[in-house]
Design a protein that fits this description.
This protein is mainly alpha-helical. Helices cover 57% and strands 5% of the residues.
Amino acid sequence: MRVVEPEHDPLDGRPWRIPLWARLTPLVLVVLVVATQTVHAVNDPDTWWHLRTGDELRGHLDLVGPDPWSPFTTREWIRHQWLGDLLLSWLHGLGGLPAVAWYVALLGTTTLVVAYLVARRDAAVLPAAALALAAAVGTSMTLSARPQSFSLPFTLVAGGAWLATARDHRSRWWLVPFTWVWACLHGFWFVAPLLGLVVAVGLRLERAPGRVVARATAVALTSLVAAALTPVGPRLLTAPFQVGTITALIDEWRPPTVGMPAFLVTWAMAMLLVLVWNVGRAPTWPEIGVLVLAGYLLVTHGRTVALAAALLVPLLARAVQERTPLGREGLGRAEVLALLVAAAVGLGGAWTLAGTRAAAPQGFPTALADRLDALPDGTVVCNDYGVGGWLWWAHPRLVPVIDGRTELYAPADVEAYARFAAGGDGTTALVSHRGCPAALVRAGSPPAATLTRGGWSVAGTAEGWTLLGRPQPPEDS
């Protein structure tokens, strides 16, 4: 039988002798660093098709239906990130690519601040600041100019709220509209109702009153229903299953490697939690359930490491504070003001930096724009995967054979692209199958070498990219 020690009040403990300004200084510096150092030129391959999607949705809010862009996709397009795409498009219309780059700094800073506030519910200033920094690193793999970045602060809020419910048995019905908004922004919304079910099962194992378990279950299931009532409709619930058939072929859905800083930091957070639990009180069943969920998210997919890091923040905050002899300070005006001023100054600096660092895309063949524009309308381009979304945005008259919306393509077509990228027969097979008169691939890549040996001419090379033209058949004499 598991024995749970009496719960420790994190406010208990000796007062800190370090002045408040000295305790807040590391937090302020971390906020300033995160706000300014997350600004860089737009380099995410998927940003571009999200921008075009948002641009089109501003004209007509068609959220479910056949793909209007590509003749090669075979599945219905469920635009479940419609609100995130609209916000991204609006920012681009407001300030161009620098505004899109600033969006990354905004959500990175927001994630840091939310992580700190979630940790401060149970931990003192210095431990909370350390956890916020760990969360910033742990979530960095998912932070980019895409709607997925909204899921970082949302996961922190959901994790903190459900763990609070596990402790005080209060029903937080605001999680229902919260989940609705999240479901309009990005597909990771499912974390909220899943956390609720995990906590409900944990409460049942803790032998909590039946009405408490019933209310927690009701909040979780109602949140699930709320997601089905977004403008996308019930089909939103099937969207995650579209990508499930091809996750093994997409880098960000593969398991993380031990060399990834975000994985290492998140793994260290999990190990620290286990260590603290071993030397302190036994964890509750809801806490164990959330840790198991975080562990699963940590090891299964590189893209979900960030969710694991976010879920570990409230768990660690309470566990660490319970082992700290010094008490948790109350959240005062000076602390809130310092946090707000640091965020405002940091984001102001980020806006200025974005104007110089992000005036043009990074890693895309913008110097080949004239040659690409010279291709006839509707030209099919056998392209590198990383440039497909950019082609849809920058050169919408052309038709790339693959792009980041991989869930819309048949698995066989995604596998055929993988063989194209490997060079050799796979390259010539895709070219023949799609009838590409042009190819846009990385200079020196296997498909570039294969096509060049096959007589394709180089129409242009710039910024590490090569535009190739198919050899013309000989004229009849």
